[in-house]
Specification:
mainly alpha, Zincin-like, 3-stranded mixed sheet, 54% helix
């Protein structure tokens, strides 16, 4: 079952990352490495080298939550810190990003 979730997460998240990446970072998507892991305490993270890591368990949350995490991590590729520029990018894609975040927090990372 864990393998199915991992395969399903990769299929769904890869497509959604591609959809949002052009909006946020333009045509540089081909340079982004994406990895899927079972993480204990995070839904995803970015590395300064330009790679993204997503928790396989994210696929068990509603799609608006999935999209929030994807956009959050993509925004870090432009603005590494949680500063005004970062939140301006988030609002530009999801004016309701905070509601999505709050909903995601109800699921907790398992």
């Amino acid at each position: 079952m864990m393998r199915w979730y991992a395969d399903h997460a990769k299929l769904v998240l890869d497509r959604r990352v591609r959809d949002y990446s052009e909006q946020i970072i333009g045509s540089n998507f081909g340079n982004i490495e994406i990895t899927y892991k079972y993480l204990k305490s995070r839904w995803g993270y970015w590395n300064p080298n330009g790679s993204l890591v997503f928790n396989v368990e994210l696929i068990k949350t509603p799609l608006p939550c999935v999209d929030y995490v994807i956009v959050h991590e993509l925004c870090h590729l432009i603005s590494p810190n949680h500063d005004k520029a970062f939140y301006r990018l988030m609002r530009g894609v999801f004016p309701d990003w905070l509601k999505r975040k709050e909903k995601l927090e109800l699921f907790g990372v398992k």
